[in-house]
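Convert to structure. Protein one:
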Amino acid sequence: MRRPSVARFTAVAAVLGIAAGIAGALFAQALARGFQTELSGRLLANTPHITVFRKDGLTVNLSGDLVAGVRGLENVDEAEPASTLSGIIIGGGGPEYVSIHSRVGEDDVNSGEVELVLGIELAERLGPSREMELVVLDAAGIPQTHKVRVTGTFSTGLFEYDATWARASQANFARLTGDAEFRPTMINVTLVEVFAAEGTAAEIRSMVGDDFRVITWEETNRPLFAALNLERKAALAVIGLIVLISALNITTTLALLVNERRGDIAVLRTVGASTRALSLVFVIEGLVLGAAGASLGIAAGLAGIAAANYWELISLDREVNLISSVPLIWSAADVAVLAVAAFVIALAASAYPALRAARLKPMENLRIG
């Protein structure tokens, strides 16, 4: 018998629905992985992997072996005394908030001006002038104005940092705080293996005692990555609903076929076909629909990922997001999981029609036919 047009339509809808769901899930996973990888890579390149500071907010005493002890740990690549200071910098483009970070380096401390290196976005906002004014609060909370000279710019690839950060050598930083020498408020630690940060942090905690707090990069950015994971789960939940609706189309298609071919099924039963064999026919047809949808979806998803990466289609507003573009990164594990998921869903969707075909009574359906 010819397959009814309704069954053909539902079969095509089922295949396309599964394909859309699989392609969407693959694309969403690649986008989430690419965003998280790009963001974490830039964060790790520009922020300390572990930060050590006093709980009371006082400066860190470097007279002992604290820094040397931290540097001696196996997973530590570098440990540097550091400090930060907030202020208002005034240039040709108007006043802007600035967060000044100390850095290791030698500047000309003999000149009458403090030398700063500005984030590239901040420098563009302030204008082309190299001579500016910086207002910071001293230890007593009194505003102090300093003449500063911009000696260069830097780019981290993260808009928030490039738009608010400035860097000063330790000697220039001391001039801003009014100290005779640089007085650090923290120790910034860079690790060899960044994903072993918690273990290294535990070693540092046992070394520095209860007067210090030790924070890893994972703790600092936990809310950000938790939000990213929540967004990915929400996207996958919506895509999962699309796939489930497509699975219902498989059930509908096979149920229509069972109804239209009940006479053929009755004939096969009377000539000795087993209920198991009849059920298997519809299960296999359901799996074929699922496999077709999964194959089409995986191909479409991978093609979409390749096109998005080649033409850099995924771009973000730099003033809203930390980064301006996102590479899509897919994995073979994602493809395998989605293929297995499509197989399981198709198998489950085929169960009811297959069971219905097995339970048809031959004599009744022959009389109807």
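Protein two, convert as well:
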Amino acid sequence: MQPIRKALFATAIAAGFIANAQAAATIQTLDITWYKAFHYTQVRRRRESRLRSMT
């Protein structure tokens, strides 16, 4: 019975680590996506502003 408890405990710990790693990866992906969207919006606005000032 003791080996089964140890195995279940180790499995639960591993599952927790995997869940945390996946959550962190998801958060990083969302942060990068938000940054890229913001960055490209700013670049587009600057480009449009320069084009307007040329005309």
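Residues 36 and 42 are 10 Å apart (CA to CA). The radius of gyration is 24 Å.
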